[in-house]
């Protein structure tokens, strides 16, 4: 097996400190099994809180981590602890990885009859697989190499059956249940919706609707049953509304088809309104009602108007309808009309991008410098310029984009632009640009990942850059990685002062704080004793048996601090009191007794 092109620091950067620490514990406890690699795909099972183990998939690219997926419900940012456990197991024990040939290569060696027999046998054993095959065949996309549209109509019935099965959880690859029923495979459901995209790209709105309508018809009642506890499923409604609007604007529907679709959309939107999802499908309704006949739109498309909408202001659905119209104009190759509408509607990123695609990059850059107000716009255009081979222009525009002042929640856009410029410049050997961008990324994110990236790129210049970045880190009221960065830099005093003790006491698995009390036990013994004993007490007093070993680790740090302070006799008194207090907790008592020094 080839050695991985990443290490534990890269895994740590993928996850939160808590997820990394818990993933490491999972590896130590032997929770990871079935580690297998097929080509650039790594899979494994991880035992967790569910009866059945979680399924983890890692996609690799040039030996590094390209994407990760886990069947657990974790959605708090970064990779979950199960993914971390699999990656650490992959790094720690490469001999445990079973190497198998890529599946596409295995299947390609079968003749037609053997492949058909294999699929048929599997479908007979697994009804969900049969539904998937039927939906795949029904939604067969138009040939991208053919100029002619698909001649046969998409059959909506297999699409609806597959959507209903996915929403019911019956097609889940594992028997996983949430507290309120079978879990929906949202990735597979999103992939089913995406079956309509090739038809939209081909200008075939009718066949796109034959996918989008049955999917929406299945989603509305399924979501209503889950509305009280849904966190993410509702996010499909705006996507469907936008795609249906594009399909409608592509034209080709008969009057009776338009009327029927309008009735259905009104009913669906009315059902959603009762649960507070106002206007999620409204853009599709507006597309049916207004189409291309809205007053003044012809003048705008012809370049005779200065602003759109004519009223001078528009709401969310107005902006979405404009985006749908722009998309249809682009699909149809109506670039002049696209540019006119984008400029009038203030869609400056879309306007500049179209200029680039038309070969007018100089005009696009000039337009951007005059009109752009956000880092997100600069990032999208910079990417496009780079993709079209205009590297110098891309880097220059990105550097200019960093000068745009972020407003409100647009701060993340500045971070994204700075990281893109940093990585792009570094890959091209533009070291000065890369270091400047790396500093900007950290100044706005204050993340450990960006701090380490700046250190790596700065090289000999790190001695000059480091004080500036640390000053930026110390200034704001909140910075998620502040303690970990100070700890990594050996700045123990600063790390201790940065800890929000009351909040950290709630998390006995806080790996960063555990490492800090280890490092600070000699220099800050009183603080370590207070923090360590309070965290341990929270666990022990609450009877959280699953965390007893962690509680013992915290008490071990308290013992070290007592010793460093010359008060080891106090520790003996303290541990004796804890042993007596928790003498009835059979899992905890041996752990406490192990912390008492033997005579």
Could you explain how this protein is built, in words?
With 599 residues, the protein is mostly helical. It is 62% helix and 6% strand. It has a 5-stranded mixed beta sheet with strand order 4-3-2-1-5, covered by helices on one side. Strands 6-7 form a two-stranded antiparallel ribbon. Strand 3 and strand 4 form a beta hairpin. Helix 1 runs antiparallel to helix 3, helix 10 packs parallel to helix 12 and helix 13 crosses helix 15. The radius of gyration is 29 Å and the shape is globular. The two termini are 51 Å apart. The relative contact order is 0.04. About 2% of the residues have low confidence. It comes from Mesorhizobium newzealandense.
